[in-house]
Amino acid sequence: MKLSVIFTLFLLVVVPSFGQVYEPKQKVTKKYYLMTINATNWFKAFQHCRYLGMQLVSISSQEENDRIVKQIQDEGHGDKEFWTSATKLNDDKTYYWMGNGELVTYFNWAAGRPDNLLLGGVYENCIHIIHKWAGDGNAYYWNDATCNRDFHFICEQERIEYEYCLNQQPF
């Protein structure tokens, strides 16, 4: 115990006095889990991800969208449709990512979408990823759908990676 106290004092007092401190840098990455056993509605998909300690996927860039599409293809699920956490249930006008609460600013709509159809007295308020054949190959787009439709879904988990670097501080 005495040795650990001395070592701690050394790290807190002596090392900084030489101008060197190890500071952690952190990088947040996302890991995606394709839920493909049973298709379900948006509400159950959202709840299931939360039950697992994750979020229904939020996509903020073309790069992130491409990573998800690649994973869908690599895992052999190109014929399936997947819920995202995007919805406009709050005001029927503005899409938000319910996974992180942020405004949706990046979109990857299919042609003519969103069309906000009224189906069975319910508007299309939730966004899912669809696979369509485009003239030049496989393409994945977003579509608006009624939230009570059954699709597969993608949960995401944020992971924090730490990197320790030597920070030179002046004497």
Architecture blueprint of SSEs:
Layout: H1 2-17, E1 20-40, H2 42-51, E2 55-56, H3 62-74, E3 82-87, E4 96-97, E5 118-119, E6 122-123, E7 126-134, E8 137-145, E9 151-168
Parallel strand pairs: 3-9
Antiparallel strand pairs: 1-9, 2-9, 3-4, 3-7, 5-6, 7-8
Commentary on this structure:
With about 170 residues, the protein is an alpha+beta fold. The chain has a single domain (about 20-170), classed as Mannose-Binding Protein A, Chain A. It is built from three helices and nine strands, in the order αβαβαβββββββ. The strands form two sheets. Strands 1, 2, 3, 4, 7, 8 and 9 form a seven-stranded mixed beta sheet that branches. It has a two-stranded antiparallel ribbon with strand order 5-6. β5 (about 120) and β6 (about 120-125) form a beta hairpin. The model has no long low-confidence stretch (mean pLDDT about 85).
Summarize the structure.
With 171 residues, the protein is an alpha+beta fold. The chain contains three helices and nine strands; from the N terminus they run H-E-H-E-H-E-E-E-E-E-E-E.
